[in-house]
Design brief:
binds magnesium ion, 16% strand, globular, Rossmann fold, 8-stranded parallel sheet, alpha/beta, 8 strands, binds adenosine-5'-diphosphate
């Protein structure tokens, strides 16, 4: 019954996009999945309102209540908890990291975004957990940019997640419609990337991949 935290100190890095796509994948695979939205802006919760189908359900929690909220969800039979966090908020990120079995750190592979990883890396080191950086919004044919970004991530003592999300219209168009990319366009590259992410998260946490979606 894993808890996956999505953290990054940078706004716009793709935390909410990643949290909602991972949670939707979990729900479609047949797992009782919940998103805990700790962002005061409550974007993930708004997305769930647009959907209205509780697939996945999104609950909100202030950081001080996060551990208890997650505990209660797991005790009630939830099989996968995904925690979405706000940017520029140390307390939220720290609590999420402490509560998580797996930490995913989305980052665009560009200089200012990579610089912001330093704060997250320090926090992970302090708590004693590994962070997996998922390169998000990767432009096409960005081989050199990616190689540089990976080197920077490794120099910070973080791991590079083998799954990446390209810069794809399906991600933002789906989110704006209260959908995930796999619902919006199951044949899209974005949908393939989400399915790849699901497999990787299952392997990393020891979950069964479950139903195809
Ligand atoms: N891989 C991607 N391709 C295209 N648009 C993306 C991608 N990831 C995120 N976005 C868009 O970028 C914006 C910021 O993403 P969001 O998930 O809200 O970031 P955060 O939660 O870290 O602030 C949103 O409009 C989202 O739709
Ligand atoms: Mg967000």
């Amino acid at each position: 019954m894993p808890t996956v935290a999505i953290v990054s100190q940078k706004g716009g890095s793709g935390k909410t996009t990643l949290a909602l796509h991972l949670a939707t994948a979990g729900a479609y695979s047949g797992k009782k999945t919940i998103v805990v939205d700790t962002d005061p802006q409550a974007t993930a919760a708004a997305w769930a309102d647009w959907r209205g189908d509780f697939l996945p359900e999104v609950v909100t929690s202030p950081p001080a209540r996060l551990a208890r909220t997650v505990e209660k969800q797991l005790a009630s039979g939830v099989e996968l908890v995904v925690i979405d966090t706000p940017p520029h908020a140390d307390a939220s990120a720290r609590e999420a990291i402490k509560t998580a079995d797996l930490v995913l750190v989305p980052s665009r592979p560009r200089a200012f975004d990579l610089h912001a990883l330093e704060a997250t890396a320090e926090m992970l080191q302090f708590v004693g957990k590994d962070g997996n950086v998922l390169m998000n919004g990767v432009p096409a044919r960005a081989t050199r940019m990616l190689a540089d970004a990976k080197a920077k991530v490794e120099a910070l003592g973080l791991s590079v997640c083998p799954v990446m999300f390209g810069e794809r219209a399906a991600f933002h168009r789906a989110s704006g419609d209260g959908e995930s990319a796999t619902e919006f366009d199951p044949e899209s590259k974005a949908a393939d990337e989400v399915r790849e992410l699901w497999k990787w998260v299952c392997k990393a946490t020891g979950m069964k991949v479950g139903k195809k979606f």
